[in-house]
Amino acid sequence: MNLAEMGARLRGCLGLETEPVAVMLMKPDEEMAAYEAFGLVRGYRYCQLVMEARRGLALRIEPDGVSCPAAAAAFGLRELPAQLASGKGLVGFGIVSAADTGRRMFAGMPRLPGRSISGIAASPLASAPRLPDVVVVEAQPEQLMWILLADLNLKGGQRRSSDTAVLQATCVDCTIIPFLEQRVNFSLGCYGCREATDLAPAETVIGFPGTLLEPLTGAVEQLGLKAIPRSRSKLACESFRGRVPPAGRPESLFGHSLQEKRNS
Length: 264
Known about the structure:
The chain is an alpha+beta fold. It has one domain. It is built from 13 helices and seven strands. Helix 2 links the parallel strand 2 and strand 3.
């Protein structure tokens, strides 16, 4: 599989402004020669590693370099600190109002077995040294919607669902779950990734296992033949706004046409 070609096809069809991110969960016995060009970093949260890879950097981090204790626990690198495990830490952040709520959120956190990986590498998909364990895409919801619809097509119309605690969106929701369950998972984001990265208010995140990269890309391209451009054309909305308003409905509710707004 040509990963550079796959990355270009996915980015081009969806109109992504930044790179799909290849995440390699490095095995203890993995050959390190493939990662010589990856910068070794410390003091990064996992979501910050993804942020940098999304914008073109190839980086790797070792267990003691992951600064977020919740992400480190999710990846099986360290134990979750008692203050977080009890839920009291989330109360302190103002995320939950009751410690027991926070405790339950962490108790249900999917995680890798302890010490099952020796580090994490992330890069633009196009420059990944091998098929990634997970592909993470951060973009506008409309763009990510097509990945989800592509997956629905691959599953023969079976409804798609997401698993989230609105906590650890990048690490757990869109990396750990796709890896462990070998499926697409999506999130609206979380307190941590929105505070610690440049993820915009109008952006969110989706993740899928690398094994789905080729079929998902093909399914997205199929959608790009008709569904994507037609939906983005807003023809039905233009037609609706071009009608004469029904009697008794204020003209102001219809506003200006989309074309007028584009030309303004």
